[in-house]
Amino acid sequence: MRDDKEIEGSSPTKPLVFAYYVTGHGFGHATRVVEVVRHLIASGHVVHVVTGAPDFVYTSEVQSPNLHLRKVLLDCGAVQADALTVDRLASLEKYSETAVVPRASILATEAEWLNSIQADLVVSDVVPVACRAAADAGIRAVCVTNFSWDFIYAEYVMAAGYHHRSIIWQIADDYSYCEFLIRLPGYCPMPAFRDVIDGPLVVRRLHKSRAEVRKDLGIGEDVKVVIFNFGGQPAGWHLKQEWLPAGWLCLVCGASDNQEFPPNYIKLSKDAYTPDLIAASDCMLGKIGYGTFSEALAYKVPFVFVRRDYFNEEPFLRNMLEYYQCGVEMIRRDLFTGHWKPYLERALSLRPSYEGGINGGEVAAAILQDTAAGKIYTSHKLSGVRRLSDAIVLGYQLQRAFGRDISVPDWYALAENELGLRPSHPSMEATEKSSLAESCIGSFEILHGNLLSLPDTVSFLNTLAGLDQAVDSSEKRLQREHMAVAGVFNWEEEIFVTRAPGRLDVMGGIADYSGSLVLQMPIREACHVAVQRNHPSKHKLWKHALARQQAKGQGPSPVVQIVSFGSELSNRAPTYDMDLSDMMDGLKPITYEKAKAFFAQDPAQKWAAYIAGTILVLMTELGVTFNDSISILVSSAVPEGKGVSSSAAVEVATMSAIAAAHGLNIPPRDLALLCQKVENCIVGAPCGVMDQMTSACGEVNKLLAMVCQPAEVKELVSIPSHIRFWGIDSGIRHSVGGADYGSVRIGAFMGRKIIKSMASTLLSSSKAGANGMQNGNGAYCDEFEEHGIELLEAESSLDYLCNLPPHRFEAVYAKKLPESMFGQNFLDQFVDHNDPVTVIDSKHKYVVKAPARHPIYENFRVKAFKMLLTATSSDEQLTALGELLYQCHYSYNECGLGSDGTDRLVKLVQEKQHCKSSSERGTLFGAKITGGGSGGSVCVIGRNCVESSDQILEIQQRYKEATGFLPYVFEGSSPGAGKFGYLKIRRPAQNAHN
Is the Cβ–Cβ distance between 334 and 307 less than 8 Å? Predict the structure, then answer.
């Protein structure tokens, strides 16, 4: 470390030495780094760039002996499966291989190197280990970026289950050694940094004018030009002449040397200077990255973009593009099939309006120079790393938190507002409900159904009533999803509205697929769906859908158009459309396997499988024929990833609305089973049926008691007035499609198959012995009565694990079940595990005994819980009920479905329960993880009193203090879809908009 620093804040009198670390993810980082480096070197300083990018990226812009390039890769970024898809698991594995395994060696090497070059400052974009290496070398460090890898990798970890979770911790810890962050526009949540200085866009300068570039390329000013910029084309994909509108030319970046193009495409050289080419184009077609994003804004070039899968930076860049009227989203299948025209024409109609600074390279260089010279920018506030425990550094989940607006990037500073954003509780005053309902009826005539005084339904109808006015709005920025709905509904025609709630898993959870009794409570939060059917000739089509239909030359044909409110919070495309003919294979519906592959083509639109999949299930299972076009609006207040069955609520509400619109009378139980097929067979999530059953059949303030064999509702158990249930979100995203849930389910079915095999072997031995060894009185010897032939016969044909009593499991099978087993070993011995919705991975090692034991004991616990609910009110009753919840929670952990966040919440409940304070009595009695586990929410049982509510709020605050995440609390209940029925509404003629 150099010791000849200048006086704080003064200009340096000799060259300063900068070590600039650049991430290995794409050229975008290198191109913005070179702009900062250019200004530092122009000021006379020495810059050592640690990079994996080709030399020409730097040397084409900076020719100076003060630029030193060191080829070392210290992070891999996000590994691309193709031009549009990030491979999440490969990214984590590659990062582990690149930066985690050799970490000790990296830190030692980098600290030694930094001191050898006498670095004055370490700059990182956005290499985590560089910040820690700087600290080890005693050198200050600054980051310049719009995102950080702890945020980007957050969702990847959820796909990996427990694996690689420590990577997030390590990255956040490394960033905490950074003195401050120069934050660039389009930024993501970055909670690990202590202090922030906001800077302008870092944009490469132009070398040539638009006229000069076009002259060099031989393109006239009257020719429309689109630059095709994907950073490499998808393999095996060929651009076609007819994909461009007449009179257009396309400039192609990143083409291979041997690739040939039609005459209306121009292949650019590998080292072409893209800023000049972008500025000379009329629009750009590509994927969003920082380089393309910043240059499109800076040079006011409309950007037609296609979403990338699983790159969590994208929603924030996209949000900014659209805010400044610079972005048009293209559906991926239209990109690949050449339906470009409507998007290019839409791009030309935009008027990009970004007027912010574009000199971020110069601004950042000045701040870095002053910092290296000794200036202190930080406040030295005692904040350290803001890693948010198991929940918050999985920061992407907070951005998705219920009620949160994606347009507020500094969400982590606003967590206290979250509770205030929650919808009203159903128990609002009757006068308030009445006035709300009247205002709603004034907008729509309710031809059928009842609002049931539900304020969320009133709110949904009021939103729906105002949507057709959005088209005429002069606001600069409108929610695209609102505009999309306004364009597809015929407001003078009938609309059908349904409602389906999420559910709180009180008892039963993952034992449902093993046939257990379960107890489920429909929650207050629900999904609303509005459906309208129209003759194809009268159906309003979005421009790209119309262009696709016209290209087929068949005239109007039935189309499904779907809008999902709040989709941007989960980085999903807000709209989806498809021809109903896509669901047909000749005269028959396509198979579920084909449908699953169809919807999986574009992960940004895979969500549509939950909705459009209901149509295919109705076709396949009930033989329904759909001849009309269908418009669908989905608006769900059931938070995703919280373990409260957001997907079931969407499926049940959608199928209910489609059934109502088409005059189908489907009983709630049957509808739930059909919805399970959507999730199992089309979405590909191996869930049981309790979620859909609760959403369809549940009632207010009652627990649905159901035996999942497959779905027999036993009764609706009233919740005693002295008992109350809450759900508390851990902030750790849960998914029944996740690796842990699927593995545990497979382990349970493996256990059942092994038990059946053992029972068959015992049965054969018993029968053989019994036939040959009777005593003189004709009775069997005792040794052959040990197991009982009738019992063994039942167990050898065991249909559900929960039909095996715990005492039989322990006495006969528990000691012989393997703790775990490789998939291949199981397949070699038993051929199949007989679960139609999961597939055994031959190389995976599955836990067997714990997943098999759990449902057997859980079924017993649920039966005991149900009986205890009707016992006399006492602390002993509540204590026993709570103990059953705790036992369930620990059994989840033994299966491998626990998480740090849910364990922490359960422990906080235990601490309140056993509090010794004389001024506070414990009124909470138990808690457990819910649903599929591996995150999500916990269910808490307590006395229905003010003290319990206060203790829940205290737990909420203590969890926030420990993790930085303010958990959402689920409280209250609402009716299932069957009780709600459906609304048929129509706007009175004088209010209808044409």
Answer: no
pLDDT given at position 917: 66
Amino acid at 372: A
Q: Average pLDDT, whole number, for the chain? A: 85
The tokens for 587 are 């005269």
- Residue carrying structure tokens 């497959």: 710
Residue type for 836, please? Answer: P
pLDDT, one tens digit per residue, over 745-797 is 999 999 999 999 999 999 988 877 665 544 444 444 444 455 588 899 999 99
Tell me the pLDDT tens digit for each residue of 670-706.
999 999 999 999 998 888 889 999 999 999 999 999 9
Output DSSP code: residue 681.
I
Q: Return the sign of the alpha-carbon dihedral for residues 859, 865, 868, 870.
A: negative
Q: For residues 464 and 529, what is the distance between their CA atoms, to the nearest angstrom?
A: 11
d(CA 194, CA 277): 39
H/E stretch holding 967: none
The sign of the dihedral angle between the CA atoms of 222, 223, 224, 230 is negative
- Dihedral pair phi/psi, residue 923, rounded to 5°: -115, 5
* This prediction's pTM: 0.78
pLDDT of residue 365: 97
Tell me the Cα Rg of the chain.
31
Beta strands in 437-558 (DSSP E): 445-448, 495-507, 517-534
Tokens 């990143």 sit on residue: 254
Cβ distance 901 to 963 under 8 Å? Answer: yes
Sign of the dihedral defined by the CA atoms of residues 850, 853, 857, 859, in that order: positive
Amino acid identity for residue 380 in this structure: H
Percent of all residues in the chain with a pLDDT value above 70, rounded to a whole number: 85
> Over the stretch 299-343, which tens digit does the pLDDT of each residue have?
999 999 998 877 778 888 988 998 899 999 998 888 988 999 999
Contact 968, 400 (CB under 8 A): no
Q: How many angstroms separate the most distant Cα atoms in the chain?
A: 113
- Classify 981 in phi/psi space as left (phi over 0), alpha (psi -120 to 50) or beta: left
Contacts of residue 950, Cβ cutoff 8 Å, sequence gap at least 6: none
Terminal-residue alpha carbon distance, the chain: 73
Looking at 602, 691, 729, 740, which residue is catalytic? 691
Task: Please give the pLDDT value at position 816.
Answer: 94
Q: Which amino acid is at 737?
A: G
Residue 385's pLDDT is 37
Q: Which two tokens stand for residue 349?
A: 């109609």
Instruction: Check whether the bond before 946 is cis (ω within 30° of 0).
Output: no
Residue 171 CB burial class (10 angstroms; 0-12, 13-18, ≥19): buried
Using CA atoms, how far residue 366 sits from 63, 447, 753, 817, in Å, is 20, 67, 68, 67
Is 55 catalytic? The answer is no
* Span 26-40, pLDDT tens digits: 777 888 999 999 999
Q: What is the pLDDT of residue 33?
A: 95
3-state secondary structure at position 928? strand
Q: State the DSSP string of 235-271.
A: TT----GGGSPTTEEEEE-S--TT----TTEEEPPTT
Closest of 891, 817, 895 to residue 851, by C-alpha: 895
Characterize the bridge pairing of strands 712-718 and 820-822.
unpaired
What span, in angstroms and rounded, lies between the C-alpha atoms of 801 and 799? 7
| Three-state secondary structure call for residue 975 | coil
Range 570-580 average pLDDT: 81
3 state SS for 80-134: EEECCEECHHHHHHHHHHHHHCCHHHHHHHHHHHHHHCCCCEEEEECCHHHHHHH
Whether the predicted pLDDT of 394 surpasses 80: no
Question: Which residue, chain included where needed, has tokens 């040794």?
Answer: 783
User: Which DSSP symbol is given to 502?
Assistant: E
Query: Which segments of 658-760 are extended strands (E)?
Result: 702-707, 712-718, 723-729
Comparing CA positions, the residue from 683, 823, 681 lying closest to residue 749 is: 823
Specify the higher pLDDT residue, 236 or 697.
697
